[in-house]
Write a sequence for this structure.
């Protein structure tokens, strides 16, 4: 009698992994995004009256302004040192305050939060709102509440930084291994003890990298906060431009560029060293664990012990106990960081009398914000900012793609050209967007044309950086295989590189649009169109209900762009 295997005993099918739409659907999504980008770009050109003739005339006016700014007139060494020190202290104080607030906020917003249920959605709302409103917009509010000076700038930097640091740290907390936390809870530890003893040490390297990256961003932001009276070197820049002293303005811009570039190099070096040390400690821990396991197993067999339990915690060898050179340097670095942070807080002059005097202003702002006053002019200003941002991001993505192809090592036609373009992009990214806007407003007058040009330049440089990094991380085998069989350069790119690059191109392009939208609000403060000018005017005239409506509109639009980018990446990657 022949036996048959029941269908229920058939081997299980292999897990197909996360489901994605078929390639045809993904191609349709990418094509739809491309059509939308072209349509938005055309609408932007029509809205601001951009044409080849107007663009040529605008660039000619800008060139005349740059000629008037030459040669730069540098301030005195003492003045430069003081302005740079104040700018750095604002950035350090704001970043440090944001890090202190972001750690408990991230643990509260994480999926595995075990506290009251209402805390998690409340924490996520705080993260979204603080990330959606630009730093300069917060600076305008805090200048009204606390008065002119670096205190308003540091608080603006801190509030906006909370959104980014808490968001990225929340992701790191959710990705951490849950086993140690569950073991600590099983032993009766409270949630705070679990977070401090098991989760925080595991995410601390990620937190360090996030804070350093945010500090780099905050230094750029602090360099222009003085435009609205929030301290730093931006005060001198605004004074020079307001008095038409273009030679002095050019000198201050040169100082800002050099400062940002030097700090960017320092930040990159510190992040690389931190990652390398973390990786080295992990590798050393794994090697020591392996050697110790073998040694204890031998000792256990000779003594009749079959458990082989190590006498020291995992990752710690006997010669690692005590104060070695690495541990001394790490502790010294932590102490130095704490001292610098305390000095930066002291430099803000946060005396109790000043803080107490700010309470009536804060109460007046908060009570005046409700109910929000939406209007047709407000919605049109928001639409103008949205069109400027999306149009500039679309054109910047196209230009950035060309520059990325010249920069990436696997697509550049000539290595020396790649090096030259990389240096140029670093310099262009080193100039804050608001500086571009101030220059274009001085050359072309008020309006969205100046804002579009400023966003175009910054979006191009940023997109080129993201695209070049993505191109260099692609699998080189398809391109090399096509090249080896005689395919031309453009054929190898179209068939071997471009299909892999489409998801990264789309995701990074939407991220650039998100950043451009936030910056478009900032540029309006300088008179470069959009909703920023309306926001500054509403605060100056004490119309806080209009300010609240603007903040809500900005948050909704930014969140919508973020959601679109997240959905597109999920369906394309």
């Amino acid at each position: 009698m022949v036996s048959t295997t029941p269908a229920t005993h058939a081997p299980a099918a292999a897990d197909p992994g996360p489901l994605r739409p078929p390639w045809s659907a993904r191609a349709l999504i990418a094509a739809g995004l491309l059509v939308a980008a072209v349509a938005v770009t055309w609408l932007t050109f029509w809205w601001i009256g951009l044409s080849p003739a107007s663009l040529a005339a605008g660039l000619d006016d800008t060139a005349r302004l740059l000629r008037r700014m030459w040669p730069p007139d540098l301030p005195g060494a003492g003045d430069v040192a003081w302005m740079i020190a104040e700018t750095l202290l604002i950035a350090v104080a704001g970043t440090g305050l944001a890090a202190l607030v972001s750690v408990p906020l991230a643990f509260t917003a994480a999926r595995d939060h075990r506290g009251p249920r209402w805390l998690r959605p409340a924490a996520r709302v705080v993260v979204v709102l603080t990330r959606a409103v630009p730093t300069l917009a917060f600076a305008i509010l805090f200048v009204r509440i606390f008065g002119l000076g670096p205190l308003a700038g540091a608080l603006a930097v801190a509030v906006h930084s909370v959104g980014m640091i808490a968001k990225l740290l929340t992701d790191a907390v959710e990705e951490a291994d849950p086993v140690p936390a569950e073991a600590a809870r099983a032993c009766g530890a409270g949630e705070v003890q679990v977070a401090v003893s098991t989760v925080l040490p595991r995410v601390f390297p990620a937190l360090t990298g996030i804070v350093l990256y945010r500090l780099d961003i905050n230094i750029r932001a602090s360099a222009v906060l003085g435009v609205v009276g929030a301290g730093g070197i931006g005060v001198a820049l605004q004074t020079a431009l307001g008095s038409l002293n273009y030679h002095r303005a050019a000198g201050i811009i040169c100082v800002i560029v050099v400062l940002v570039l030097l700090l960017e190099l320092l930040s990159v070096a510190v992040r690389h060293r931190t990652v390398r040390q973390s990786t080295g400690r992990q590798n050393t821990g794994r090697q020591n664990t392996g050697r110790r396991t073998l040694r204890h197993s031998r000792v256990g067999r000779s003594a009749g012990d079959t458990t082989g339990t190590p006498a020291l915690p995992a990752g710690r060898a006997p010669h690692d106990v005590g104060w070695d050179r690495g541990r001394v340097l790490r502790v010294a670095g932590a102490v130095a960081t704490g001292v610098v942070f305390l000095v930066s807080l002291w430099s803000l002059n946060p005396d109790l009398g000043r803080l107490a005097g700010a309470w009536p202003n804060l109460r007046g702002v908060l009570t005046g914000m409700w109910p929000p006053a939406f209007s047709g002019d407000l919605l049109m200003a928001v639409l103008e900012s949205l069109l400027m941002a999306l149009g500039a991001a679309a054109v910047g993505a196209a230009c950035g793609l060309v520059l990325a192809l010249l920069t990436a090592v696997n697509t550049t036609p000539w290595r020396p050209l790649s090096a030259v373009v990389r240096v140029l992009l670093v310099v262009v990214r080193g100039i804050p967007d608001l500086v571009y806007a101030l220059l274009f407003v001085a050359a072309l007058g008020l309006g969205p044309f100046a804002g579009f040009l400023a966003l175009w330049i910054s979006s191009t440089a940023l997109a080129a950086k993201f695209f070049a990094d993505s191109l260099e991380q692609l699998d080189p085998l398809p391109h090399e295989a096509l090249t080896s069989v005689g395919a031309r350069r453009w054929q190898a790119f179209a068939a071997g590189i471009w299909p892999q690059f489409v998801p990264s191109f789309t995701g990074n392009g939407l991220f650039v649009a998100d950043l451009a939208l936030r910056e478009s609000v900032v540029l309006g403060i300088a008179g470069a169109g959009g909703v920023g000018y309306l926001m500054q005017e509403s605060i100056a005239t004490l119309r806080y209900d209009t300010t609240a409506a603007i903040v809500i509109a900005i948050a909704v639009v930014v969140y919508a762009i973020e959601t679109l980018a997240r959905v597109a990446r999920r369906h394309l990657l």
Observations:
- The chain is about 75% helix and 0% strand.
